[in-house]
Amino acid sequence: MKLIVGLGNYGKEYEHTRHNMGFDVVDKFAESLGEDIDKKGFHSLYTKVKYFDEVIYLLKPLTYMNNSGIAVKEIMDYFDISLEDIIVIYDDMDIKIGHIKMKFDGSSGGHNGIKSIISYLGSQNFKRIRIGIGQPTYNNIDFVLSKPSKEEQESINEAQKMAVDALKIAIKESFNKAMTIYNR
């Protein structure tokens, strides 16, 4: 059993902003399997899917970014999901736009959603897929809560497609295999 968490902020005003990369990737992964993330529970929108005989819970916390750990902890405890079976997807300003980076663990890197998850889980040992949104040219908060330009969105769409493909390889084969292919 696996848990794939897409980080973002819930609400129309946040849809498809830079800070909602996790939500967008998890939605695209669900769509690729013919599913919708439409159940409410665990302070989240979630659904259960099967991919290559693996049961996977897809989660989009409704707690806003800074409290994402609440939702992750609730669903982990309820379904007894272990840390090594979690993949969290989120935006990263330190990665060039249009790129993704995968890693097994580490600090929050200043990302409040990851800080919250680390705090609630009491561990940094969970897998991550980071989607590059590039460096802000103005206030960080305004930047992450804004929508990308048309040109940026094209690069982001490519990165999101790579992230979905990486998830599929990580589930079908291994996270290591996906890292070998997608970490540039």
Task: Summarize the helices and strands and which ones pair or pack.
Layout: E1 2-6, H1 21-32, E2 39-41, E3 44-51, E4 54-61, H2 68-79, E5 86-92, E6 100-103, H3 112-121, E7 127-132, H4 140-144, H5 150-172, H6 175-182
Parallel strand pairs: 1-4, 1-5, 5-7
Antiparallel strand pairs: 2-3, 3-4, 6-7
Helix pairs in contact: 1-5, 2-3, 5-6
Write structural notes for this entry.
- By secondary structure, the protein is α/β, with parallel strands linked by helices.
- Helix content is 38%, strand content 22%.
- The protein has six helices and seven strands.
- It has helices at residues 21-32, 68-79, 112-121, 140-144, 150-172, 175-182, and strands at 2-6, 39-41, 44-51, 54-61, 86-92, 100-103, 127-132.
- The protein has a seven-stranded mixed beta sheet, sandwiched between helices.
- A hairpin with a 2-residue loop joins strand 3 (44-51) and strand 4.
- Helix 1 crosses helix 5, helix 2 runs parallel beside helix 3 (112-121) and helix 5 (150-172) packs antiparallel against helix 6.
- The protein is globular, with a radius of gyration of 15 Å.
- The chain starts with a strand and ends with a helix.
What is the compact description of this entry?
The protein has helices spanning 21-32, 68-79, 112-121, 140-144, 150-172, 175-182; strands at 2-6, 39-41, 44-51, 54-61, 86-92, 100-103, 127-132. The chain is of the alpha/beta class.
